[in-house]
Amino acid sequence: MTNNILDYGADPNGVTDSRSALNAAISDNSSDTIYIPKGVYLIGQNITILSNKKLIFDRNARLKPAAGIGMEINGTWDANPDDHIFDLSIGGSITGNCKIDEIYPEWFGAKGDGVADDLIPIKTAINLAVNSKKITLDGGYALTIPVILQPKRYRVTDTIYITKSANAITSMTGRATQLLIKGSGISSSIELDKQNGTLLDMWNTSVCFKDVGLWAVKGGATVMKLGKNDPVNLYELRQSRFVNVFFRGNVNLEVERIFDSSFYDCFFAISGDSGVAINLTKPTIDNHNNVNLRRCHFEVSANNCTWIKARGDSVRTDGYHHGFNFDGCHFETRSYTTTILDLDTVNSFAFYRCQMTQNGRSDGSDTVSSAVSLIKLNNVAGISFDTCGISRQNDVSTAPLLVKASGVCNAVTFRNVISATCGDKTGGRKNFIDDSQCTTKRGIRLDNCMLTTFGNKSSNDERLYLSAGSNNRDWQLFDDTSRANRNLMVGYTSNSAVDLIPFADAPFGFSSAGQFFSKFGYSGLTTNVANGSTYSYALPGEINANKRGIYMFALDTNTGLEWGIVVSTGSNLVTMILGSNVENGGNVEPNVTGKLNIWCGANGTINFKNLYGSNRDLVVIPFTFGKVFT
Q1: What are the Cα distances from residue 215, in Å, to 158, 180, 221, 303, 304?
Q2: Which of 122, 126, 142 is nearest to 241 (CA)?
Q3: Contact 446, 412 (CB under 8 A)
Q4: What is the pLDDT of residue 34?
């Protein structure tokens, strides 16, 4: 049995006030179900629907609160998801702690046709979800009643503000309740139609967006502003999730304060030139912390863009902390003028299993000669790249290095990284880091990396180019495989940028020394020693005036290698490891036929005399050389 409001005098033509009729139907306790037949019913005074009451709407049935009039619904209702059941066109409102299972913006007048302004219907749906105390649990997370976006384009003309925590009590999960907005994929989109506007401004709240598109494509527009840099209050976005969300705008995320939040399987697209995907502004009271992005894709074809831009506050000693983690993300620029990472005065960024690629525009309107560095680091600490790929397509010798480091850089690590510069050229490639503006002597570490190129090789290729300059740098390199002609460019030299030079305080390890030399070689760095002749290797003294250190050498025997590792005291040669056909005389020429003879000569030289019977190629490498020997 139901109470039909027509039986209590309601006007289905929307001319006279039907508030008394609706209230009478609610007050009639013969039934807790109130039936709303087809028609428009004007509600001219405030009214409250009790929590034990249920409204059942016929197709094309609609309640229309007058201007300034509110309907507080604490019960539930039943209606078709596409029906417009609450008419808010003259300024009425719907509030309350409703008990429905899901909320559709269409109930409040949303069209979803990309033409009508759906701002008020969407805001009403969100407010009802936030104010409801009904929750569901999802993997340990507490969620509000979901706001459901159907496969439609919901156009809005101004900002949607979400600045209130959900009312639900969630001590059972230990987490804040997340406002759930759920769609059906990219076809369910909210689109801002406003120049330089912001689609969503969220702070002092927790949210969960799933399977939706969020667009702000008009010039200068921002998709989301997260948190609020308030000097007094901690207005952060906290414990929030974004799952399979498509962001598209000039700025995707403007981040002021965010904590304990995650982005899964999201797509970030910049819609115009000079845009930013994630812009982290300076914190004024506290810091961002524990933000995770997993399996997200970043792609742009516009010019002069930046995927991740972060700025800290150099005045406050703790004001530049950011805890951002990227796992399995793909960063692809389809413009040579786009930077992937631009970090200044921040710390704690981690990239794991990420791919970073710089390509040109598909229409050929830009050239690689105008390229910028993919990664820019200035005054940073705790930045790590693990099992990542970093590359540029169609590289040319005039393009900048892939990574630009400056200022104070500490605890910056590249581990298991494959870096490639691709393309055919004759001017030589420079790969990988330019640190010429760094003021720290130690702080960047390469561990088990492979730096390579594709395309025609050049005699000027530089595999690991760490900025030739005037200062000494203590680079930390471990098991790096740098394959090609100019294999190792390490630290600084006063000679030329193609010298193989020593580095301080850090060992350089080869997993298989013989195979490494024999397979890849050191074109341009080997010396051919004629049979019976002596080659004198002058020990470098740029760092250690006494010319003490550990050196590795290898002699090509046509069938293999004769190699060894020795310690030079500057006046004597001490054996560490020697091949069977190498004779060490210390500081005296051994003169043994059929072997490579080595000894320490005058002025800190290592002498190599070839008595094999034919000419042989020789390579000498400073294995470890530094302050420990001074």
Answers
A1: 12, 18, 9, 19, 20
A2: 142
A3: no
A4: 97
The 8-class DSSP code of residue 59 comes to T
Identify the DSSP state of 8.
G
Three-state DSSP at 20 gives helix
* Euclidean distance between CA atoms 439 and 36, whole angstroms: 74
Q: Can you tell me the distance from the alpha carbon of 429 to that of 424, in angstroms, rounded to the nearest whole number? A: 10
DSSP 387-454: S-EEEESS--TTSPPSEEEEEEEEEEEEES-EEEEES--SS--B-SEEEEEE--SS-EEEES-EEEEE
Handedness of CA 186, 226, 374, 356 (dihedral sign): negative
pLDDT of residue 285: 57
Q: To which residue do tokens 């000097």 refer?
A: 231
Structure token pair of residue 179: 């406002």
**Cα-based distances in Å from 57 to 23, 39, 41, 105, 360:** 16, 10, 12, 16, 56
Non-local CB neighbours of 493 within 8 Å, separated by 6+ positions:
468, 499, 501, 542
Q: Which residues pair with 1 in a beta bridge?
A: none
566-614: pLDDT as tens digits:
888 888 899 888 888 999 999 999 999 999 999 998 777 899 999 988 8
pTM check: above 0.90: no
Among candidate residues 43, 40, 49, the one with its CA nearest the CA of residue 68: 43
Structurally, what CATH architecture does the domain formed by 527-629 represent? Answer: Sandwich (2.60)
**CB distance 597 to 590 below 8 Å:** yes
pLDDT at residue number 88: 96
**Phi, psi (rounded to 5 degrees) for 564:** -170, 170
Query: CA 19, CA 43: separation in Å to the nearest integer?
Result: 5
Instruction: Report the alpha-carbon distance of residue 322 to residue 345 in Å, rounded.
Output: 10
pLDDT given for residue 162 in this prediction: 93
**Rounded distance between C-alpha atoms, residue 618 and residue 555, angstroms:** 5
Under-50 pLDDT residues of the chain: 168-174, 317-319, 424-428, 456-524, 542-543, 624-630
Residue 407, number of CB atoms within 10 A of its CB? 15
Interatomic CA distance for residues 506 and 195, integer angstroms: 54
**DSSP β-bridge partners for residue 606:** 537, 600
Residue 369: CB atoms within 10 A of its CB come to: 10
Instruction: Quote the radius of gyration of the chain (alpha carbons, Å).
Output: 34
Q: Are 339 and 277 in contact (CB under 8 A)?
A: no
Confidence (pLDDT) at 426: 46
User: Domains of the chain: which residue ranges?
Assistant: 1-100, 135-272, 527-629
